[in-house]
TrEMBL record:
NCBIfam families the UniProt entry points to: crypto_DASH
Pfam families: DNA_photolyase, FAD_binding_7
Natural source organism: Shewanella litoralis
Domain Photolyase/cryptochrome alpha/beta: 25-158
Keyword terms of this UniProt record: Chromophore, FAD, Flavoprotein
Family indicated by similarity: Belongs to the DNA photolyase class-1 family.
Name of the protein this chain belongs to: Cryptochrome DASH
Cofactor field: FAD; (6R)-5,10-methylene-5,6,7,8-tetrahydrofolate
Function comment: May have a photoreceptor function.
Cofactor: binding details: Binds 1 FAD per subunit. Binds 1 5,10-methenyltetrahydrofolate (MTHF) per subunit.
Keyword Zinc: no
Length: 476
């Protein structure tokens, strides 16, 4: 049975939809940060238009070779969460008679070959806010034979390009202006579940090159579960969504969201949102249901507010493309910071003179997650106390965070470094005050630093990084 689409559950491609009636559609879906079947405009479109399908995810060997800013693109926590998410998606696809093919190669190298040799007539990809991802999409297109349709649909954002009440070039320079402009625009409800997917396109078993790409590679780092409660996959993401809104936590969210620790102090949706195991529209829909049953308050509304920040950064990524990674950010003003190897290393290895920062970095290193307040504190420390180039911090977060999201991460770092969408120009956190406010009894520090905590938390403690006595450095 072919799933019937209604106008309401179809996203319009940001580049224009390309449907050609009466032509056989052999589709290849190149997955990215859209690792789910529910509320996925691409699977909906495929169910309606395609006769055969191949679903592919590419794991690029370059991700694990120390790249720019002295960090890998994907660290062990992120990889573990990704592999769990891919396994879960494969399990779900099996129920539709489909399979996920993980290809261990750079997309630009392997996809044109697969597309050209398997009679693919249409390639799908989510509309991505990352400049590198967009460049890879263009590169794949350039190396394919002519006559193939390339279709991008919005699967990661609340709105699609056509729904925005301004041209992308006119995206406001601040979040508050953005919020005013989009206020009142209806957020489309999540699409209906698909009931069918086309049959699989068989892989060429004689193709030695392809078989090499499909073989589990030696270069893939080993992963194992550490002290981590986040488990990847669409079902796990949906469980977290359901359990959060089955409780009354949304009614106190705003009061506790700045806590440094505690599972219940924020929604913890970010890892699943970041790789698309759940959609932002599903979260908004679940929030709406919660509010209609239990009432809305300032706290529940604040969850939507934070999701709009995510939305803003996604369109910010679309607009500013590679400027997202520029030292002088979108402001064009170069910060008075530089690269200091020892300071950066101390920050990464949780050995700065600041106990709170060390505890937070230890949490990040051991779990791949850190609260929003924690991220602000450590980012401010790297930029304003250690006076390091913010891009090294952003790249380390990129490696470590299981919820890494290119636009949200680099956009937040720009903001903290004073080169982004902040009308105030810069955010410097007073570390002493932050500790007094968010860890007044030193419990968080003790939990993560254990025995080291007392020694590090001594306010007279002086340390020397890079020949500079950090105790002399102002924190106010
Ligand atoms: C320097 C820095 C880097 C960051 N890097 C990332 C990143 O790579 N990926 C990521 O998802 N978030 C990032 N954030 C934003 C934020 O810290 C996390 O989204 C949040 O801590 C995730 O936990 P949660 O899902 O419980 O959030 P909640 O507080 O429950 O918020 C709900 C959702 O709103 C969104 N959200 C919350 N805070 C922000 C924010 N400041 N900016 C944009 N969206 C937000 C997220 O999608 C989040 O899941 C970063 C923040 C900072 C300061």
């Amino acid at each position: 049975m072919v799933h019937k689409m209604t106008k309401a559950n179809v996203e319009i491609s940001p580049l224009g939809r390309c449907t050609t009636p009466n032509q056989t559609v052999n589709a290849l879906y190149w997955l990215g940060e859209d690792l789910r079947i529910a509320d996925n405009a691409i699977f909906t479109d495929i169910a309606e238009h395609a006769q055969q399908l191949m679903v592919v995810y590419c794991i690029d060997p370059q991700w694990f070779r120390c790249a720019q800013y002295q960090a890998d693109y994907v660290g062990k926590h992120r990889l573990r969460f990704l592999l769990e998410s891919l396994q879960a998606l494969d399990d779900s696809l099996n129920q539709y008679g489909q399979q996920l093919h993980i290809v261990y190669a750079r997309a630009q190298d392997c996809l044109p070959h697969i597309i050209n040799t398997h009679g693919i007539t249409r390639v799908y990809r989510s509309h991505h806010s990352g400049a590198d991802e967009q460049a890879a999409w263009q590169a794949v297109q350039q190396h394919c034979r002519t006559g193939i349709q390339f279709s991008t649909l919005a699967t990661q954002t609340l709105f699609n390009l056509q729904q925005l009440p301004f041209d992308l070039d006119a995206l406001p320079a601040t979040f508050s202006q953005f919020r005013k402009l989009i206020d009142g625009i209806d957020i489309t409800a999540p699409s209906d579940a698909i009931s069918w997917l086309p049959p699989m396109i068989a892989l060429q078993s004689q193709d030695k090159q392809l078989q090499d790409w499909l073989r589990y590679p030696k270069w893939l780092p080993q992963t194992h579960r550490l002290s981590n409660v986040f488990c990847g996959g669409e079902i796990q993401g949906k469980l977290q969504l359901d359990s959060y809104f089955a409780s009354d936590l949304a009614h106190s969210y705003k009061l506790v969201r700045n806590e440094l620790d505690g599972w219940e102090h924020s929604t913890k949706f970010s890892p699943w949102l970041a790789n698309g195991s759940i959609s932002a529209r599903q979260v908004i829909s679940a929030l709406g249901q919660f509010e209609s049953q239990h009432g809305a308050n300032d706290s529940s509304q604040w969850i939507k507010y934070e999701l709009l920040w995510r939305e803003y950064f996604h369109w910010y990524g679309h607009k500013f493309t590679s400027t997202l990674f520029r030292f002088s950010g979108i402001s064009g003003k170069k910060p008075l910071t530089s690269f200091y190897a020892k300071r950066l290393q101390a920050w990464k290895t949780a050995t700065t003179p600041y106990a709170l920062v060390n505890a937070l970095m230890k949490q990040l290193n051991e779990t791949g997650y850190m609260s929003n307040r924690g991220r602000q504190i450590v980012a401010s420390c790297l930029v304003h106390e250690l006076q390091c180039d913010w891009r090294y911090g952003a790249a380390y977060f990129q490696q470590q965070l299981i919820d890494y999201d290119v636009a949200v991460n680099w956009g937040n770092w720009q903001y903290l470094a004073g080169v982004g969408a902040d009308p105030r120009g810069s955010r410097r956190f007073n570390l002493v005050k932050q500790q007094q406010t968010y860890d007044p009894h030193g419990r968080f520090i003790a939990a993560w630093l254990g025995g080291e905590a007392l020694q590090q938390n001594d306010s007279n403690h002086t340390a020397n990084i890079d020949g500079v006595d950090m105790a002399d450095w102002p924190t106010a």
